[in-house]
Design goal:
Layout: E1 7-12, H1 20-31, E2 35-37, E3 46-50, E4 53-57, H2 61-82
Parallel strand pairs: 2-4
Antiparallel strand pairs: 1-3, 3-4
Length: 84
């Protein structure tokens, strides 16, 4: 779990095949011990770029984005209901 406010981007792992910039991002994260999760491989479906590092995930990027949106909406609703 990563706090929503720390998420910078959610990327489809297949983008690594076509983008030198994305590969460089992952390589830099690995070199600085900021690559976390299941690692880059056949089970990696998404990269979650945060202010604290890059996380690999076996959950697809669209699914993660939907979940993040849903959690954000719940948090906003909860905050509105609990204001005094």
């Amino acid at each position: 779990m990563v706090p929503i406010r720390e998420v910078v981007a959610i990327l489809d792992a297949r983008l690594l095949e076509h983008s030198e910039n994305n590969r460089a991002l992952v390589e830099r994260a690995a070199l600085t011990n900021n690559l976390k999760g299941i690692g880059i491989g056949p089970d990696c479906k998404a990269l979650v770029v945060t202010t604290g590092g890059v996380y690999t995930s076996g959950v697809s990027a669209p699914t993660l984005a939907r979940r993040m949106t849903r959690f954000r909406q719940i948090a906003i609703s909860w905050e509105a209901q609990t204001r005094v």
